[in-house]
Amino acid sequence: MDAATAVKPSTPKWNVDRPFLTGRFHQQMKSAHGGGESKGLTFDMFRSGVDKPIGCYHVAVQELIVIDDLLSALVGIEGRYISIRTDHGEDYTVLFHVDASMDLTLQESAKRTFLLCESYVLINQFVESISQFKSGLVNHAFAAALRTLLL
């Protein structure tokens, strides 16, 4: 039996359908809450009241908030004042936006970090796309090695 006619095992449907295995549940929970009814827990349920614009805070407090949001953005999770938008067009792109009321120096510092955040999200998406059995053993092993580096 040659390689072209060899039967490859299929990836179980639950492996693709369960977002907790891939880390996509962070974005899915955020978008499901904004788009109508959602089941289960969402991040917004744990927030206390309505968020004030970040510009209402002192610059030192803004810096702490931005650090927290940037740490979340580094793994592809939206923060309170940093939002993530994905474009599933021809080129899969990830766009990060900051609250316009944020201090200008903090905005520029955050925007410099967004390139690293985007790279992580894109590499993570790549790993998920080639970790299927149909991609072959070499790609499967490569995806596993990349996944260990990302963790």
Automatic annotation (TrEMBL):
Subcellular location per the Swiss-Prot or TrEMBL entry: Cytoplasm, Cytoskeleton, Microtubule organizing center
Keyword Cytoplasm assigned: yes
InterPro entries: GCP, GCP_N
Every Gamma tubulin complex component protein N-terminal domain range: 67-150
Predominant localisation class: cytoplasm
GO cellular component: gamma-tubulin complex; microtubule; spindle pole
Keyword set includes Cytoplasm: yes
Keywords of this entry: Cytoplasm, Cytoskeleton, Microtubule
Single GO MF annotation: gamma-tubulin binding
GO process annotations (BP): cytoplasmic microtubule organization; meiotic cell cycle; microtubule nucleation; mitotic cell cycle; spindle assembly
Pfam families hit by this protein: GCP_N_terminal (PF17681)
Family: Belongs to the TUBGCP family.
Function: Component of the gamma-tubulin ring complex (gTuRC) which mediates microtubule nucleation.
Protein name: Gamma-tubulin complex component
Species assigned in the record: Genlisea aurea
